[in-house]
Amino acid sequence: MAKIKEIHSREIYNCQGSATVETIVILEDKTIGVSSVPSSDLDSKYSAVNLVDNVQNHFLGQGVLKAVSNIKDIIAPKLIGYEADKQQEIDKIMIELDGTQNKSRLGANAMLSVSMAVAKAAAKSSEQELYVYLRNFVKHDDSNFKLPNLIISLINGGSRAYNLLDFRDFFIIPASFKTIEESIQIGFMLLTSLRTILKASNYLPFFSIEGGYALPLVNNAEVFTLLCQALKVTNNRLGYDVFFGIDANADTFYVDGSYKIKDKSMSISSDDLISFYVDLISAYHILYIEDPLAVDDWDGWEKMSRQVGHETIIVGDLLTATNPYRLQMALQKKAVSGITIKPIQIGTVIEALAVMEIARISGLKIVVSHQSGSSTDSFLADFAVAIGADYVNFGPLTRGEYIVEYNRLLEIEAQIKKV
User: Fold this and answer.
1) Which domain, by its residues, includes 372?
2) Quick check: is 342 catalytic?
């Protein structure tokens, strides 16, 4: 395998017009790998650090020139001369250079951009598709590739949608027997029918900063009434063709040990919130609930999983934060039946694969998920196919940084069908 000859990095814009890191890795055979990572202020306190400059006159303190400098001055000199297919060694070197538990010295954004760019360059140099190349670092029983099911965000709430609804995302999940192309078509049809229904109801449809619809509704349950209307228009059957899902992001409405949502007139306990979820699950075929309780409300998570874990996938995102220690805690407490994998939450490709492997061995559903502040890098689509993820959440079907992932998945689906 060709050796790394050059590593370059720069500050670029993400989908929200803020700054993120791009890295270019050039090999001795002139192969080039380019990667860019997401950057977000919506993350768990248990995630690796997305290093920003805190200089107010540059991207309001969210610039990443320090992370870029770390790549140039610290990471690149150590990695130049390594064979590009030594991904484990390369990622380990960066972890040791950082020397912290949460990547606070070099930054997860700096480290992951290099890790991804190296993997892309090595795949290209070996004349393999990226998902085929990444499969070399995954334990698997056969050579067949599994395509993930789609989780498609249609409606956003929380702070990214101007606090109009409590829950961060409302999803549709096409049935597992649908192809990627059919699932995307269902998402498009529902997006279009929703727009028609909203206009007819005198709602002014507008998009949140995440790209889904932001709606001035009275409460969260109203969203499902709208989604059911949209399903009827498209002739898709709830509980057969399509299921619903939620990213509650419950930390945002958890205050002083209780929860406050628009559906209830007063603050409620974990037990009351779980009862509310149970009612929603029964009424609306909710297959998937992400972060239904606050990240430190372990008793609530345990009760939720006991009550509905047999019929609904209870997923840790901010709870587990692609963090092996948090994942182990969740497993010991039997708090989750699924986990999101976000490489940016841990900082290197190999570490993300290791967390995924722990989750898979433990029988959890694997969800490869995008992050707010995404770039137009399609790495996650290849990553999801390489690891045989059960689901992918790339975001709404409305913006380029998400569409590149969907289009890449379509491309992979076509390639796999030819084999």
Assistant:
1) 149-418
2) yes
